[in-house]
Amino acid sequence: MVNLNEVVPDFPCNTTQGPITFHAYIEGSWAILFSHPADFTPVCTTELGRVAALAPDFQRRGIKLIALSCDSVESHSAWLADIEATQGHRVDYPIIGDEDRTIATLWGMLQPGLVNMSGMPLTCRSVFILGPDKKLKLSLLYPASTGRNFDEILRVVDSLQLSAVHPIATPVDWVPGQDCIVAISVRDEDCAEKFPKGVRKVETPSGKNYLRYTPNP
Fold it and tell me: Can you tell me the distance from the alpha carbon of 208 to that of 92, in angstroms, rounded to the nearest whole number?
């Protein structure tokens, strides 16, 4: 398994855009690697099309996108025509071929009990968000039956990128522009310097007053 805040495994692979080495591909950038159980499947088709539609939004955030499916690159390339025709968007990011499940096994993507018609194991719908330091910042695992919400993944990226620069956290259901929470590592006496827009404390029955809000930096 790939653990949070650890450097993710490197690997060579073939993709729909030619051979790459993963670390070299993501060098210096935020990146998202997301997996799919199989080509020419309905949920995967909608997901890849949705990410293609959101590609400009990911690009504005400096995110490199790369997908993986447990089929050949030749199969992926044929599938791309179906995705564009049915979803209305062309997939311009690479899709990794992983027929022997080497990468899926290395990264812990396989879903126990999920196999194809030939009895080969398939991946779950995993999402790995990586920082420019090649460390894992967030991972999500969905079952094959549930399509992902990529608007939520964009929201998560916004939170991760904000907290990478400022000593803040984001509260439940936060969206960009809303107040953030001051990190518990920040002392009260340092708040004025770190948060010139001000800090609002919420008194609690415990008297600990650990809820401190500040406008989006």
Answer: 51
